[in-house]
Amino acid sequence: MSLRPKRIAFESTMASLHSQITQLFSPTQGDAAFMDPFQAVYDLCTAYPKPFDDALFESLSLFIAEYAREKRESIVGSLDTVSAYSHEWTHFTHASRYLDSVCEYLNRITAKKRSTMPTQSRRRLNANGSVKFERMRIHALAFLIWKETVLMEIKSNAGNRLLNQIFDFVKRDRDGTPLVDNGVIINTVESFVQVCEFVPQPLQFYIQEFEQPYIQSTRDYYIAESNTLISTMTISGYMKCISKRISDEEERSCRFCHETSREKVTKECVSQCVSAHKERLYDAFAAMLRDENLGDCTLVYQLMLKIPDGILPMLQLFQKHMFELGKDIVARLRPAAQKDPRDFIHGLIDLHGKWSAICEKTFSNNPAFGAALDKGFRQIVNESYEKAAQNFPELLSRFADSLLKKTLKSQWTETELEDKIGKAVECILFLNLILFNYLQEKDVFQKFYSRMLGRRLLGNLSASDDLEMTMISGLKNVCGVEYTSKLQRMFTDITLSQDLNKRFSTSMERQNVNLGVDFSILVLTAGSWPSMPGAIDYDVPEELLKSVTRFGDFYGNNHNGRKLSWMYHLCKADVKLTYLDKKYELNLSLHQLSVLLPFNQDTMLTLGSVVDRVKIKPADVRKIIKPLIDLEVLVASNTQLEDSTEISVNMKFSNKRTKLKVSAAAQNESTSMQESEVTRAAVDEDRKLYLQATIVRILKSRRVMGHNQLIQEVIQLSTSRFIPSIGLIKKSVEQLIDKGYMERSKERTDQYVYVA
Questions:
Q1: Measured between alpha carbons, how far is 281 from 244 in angstroms, rounded to an integer?
Q2: pLDDT tens for residues 139-156?
Q3: What is the pTM of this model?
Q4: 431-448 b/e with 16+ CB inside 10 Å = b?
Q5: Phi first, then psi: what are they for 279, rounded to 5°?
Q6: Domains of the chain by range and CATH?
Q7: Does residue 17 carry a pLDDT above 90?
Q8: Residue 704: beta bridge partners?
């Protein structure tokens, strides 16, 4: 191959090259050697004295345009337009690529000239009507000519036959008629992208000429299809059908469309099949929840995930359904819960467990449905409908008390007990993490729970210390250390008291002191234990006075500066009945023991004599002695229990059990309600003090603070215990101003200043 520029005859050289190119574009061309065309192109581009590169480019443009016109007529004349187009396009792309390699030297010259040309298009018509194109690579030229001469002309002058036939094939595929050859459709659609391979925005032509019409045809098809299906099928059948339709459309768009179109096509299908009928689906979803038709619930969920914010109305319906189910439990079980809350709380626990599992399985454990479940239960627990939520914290604490009490041991065998305790642990953990977490009035729960914990600890009624600590640990995890500090201190007092009793016994033995009774004591920290009602004026019996005095001296010697306040009304005693053939042991209160001890000297006394000896008010003595009479340990001459009533020891007492617990005076419902009211009043007082302390703590760190900001921060810091009303916060602010802890700013009336 000669690289030296030389004089050449343009007509003869171009004629020879034209023959070679014609052979190249012929469907029957073989593997010819291309040295002559390469040489001809080089010679024309380097001809002396003037190169013929412009003339060569124009001649090639005319050839390709004429070839494209011939193929267009052939395609339009075929009944199977898509197959004919695909065949001709495949051959044209191969030939264009070969021609581009032949004209590589021309392409280099074109690239140099384009770098100095203006960017605007220079396509124009000559006077004779021939088409001239802007100089570009031959490959790009071939694709441009094909786009305008074949694709655009078929659209304009052949009724857009190519696209219409493609859309007809796609419709048949959607209707269930399998296509014989997907390849011709795929190849044809790809040509809409390939013809613009060399332009700055290669997908613009494809989007305008194929994607947009394809999406419109998809829209029209599924508008008609979805309306037909939903009017002739059940909602369940419709959802199953369109779920498959959407899945098929996703697969179809992957076959026929460019990757950038697939999401748009599927979105249009979803829009017409789901969004257009979503209100019908939402209405059906509410009925599915009521009927617990979980399979269809899953179908609705999966469909609504495909549209923006599609599950939001579902979440609202789900939350409302949870609330309605909870209200039903409240209506059925709440009346009996005041006496025994176990069925009521277990009903809520079972409800939560059931629908938590449904959320996990039916809604793929979507956190949004978990949050809706939480909101529904928060309504159940806290909303004050029919006064059910007003004492929910008390019911919850009583439920925990029923799990933790030692009374379980009298109801179960050892194996059953272990299983019961295991279930109790599970319930307690659930209580901590779920139901308790929903409470807004956590401080009310704490008040009732601490009172019941105190009774269990003082009466040695806890089934297991491990269970008690599990409960406290769970409460601490939810509310923090401050919330459980008093509960923890109560346990600490019990542990320290055990050690204190050992040291007291050792001290008495060392001094050779015989107390005459088995004596143990609990020393409780004032302020950590809830106040226990029922204290009465009382003198210690002579039999116990020595023990009480000795322990007081021992404690004072070992704890200088501390003062003991004796809580006699909380004391218990174990007494053996030795006057009967059968031995019995009574567990009773210290006050009951005091009433019983005078009968050691006299087996019969009047009630007035008993009052004189124990030095307790007559009304209190009647309440104390009545359980002993009811148990038939003592016998009364009449039921009126007047001062003259004779009380005697029952020498014929008999009972199947040898260990008997003498109950305290029975509390009626009004007494229980009064105790609840007292506890609530204590909570209200604690809230006032808590809010005042919180406000002072905030202002102390900020020094100056706006009213609204202070309100917000107080609410934020108090939420873990309770949600204070704005009115209560304002009242606390006024009280602190009166006490001199803070004052209003002199510059701005809506600001507060901390007073050091």
A1: 17
A2: 999 999 999 999 999 999
A3: 0.80
A4: bbebbbbbbbbbbbbbbb
A5: -65, -40
A6: 10-159 (1.20.1310.10), 311-479 (no CATH), 492-562 (no CATH), 571-666 (3.30.230.130), 671-754 (1.10.10.10)
A7: no
A8: 753
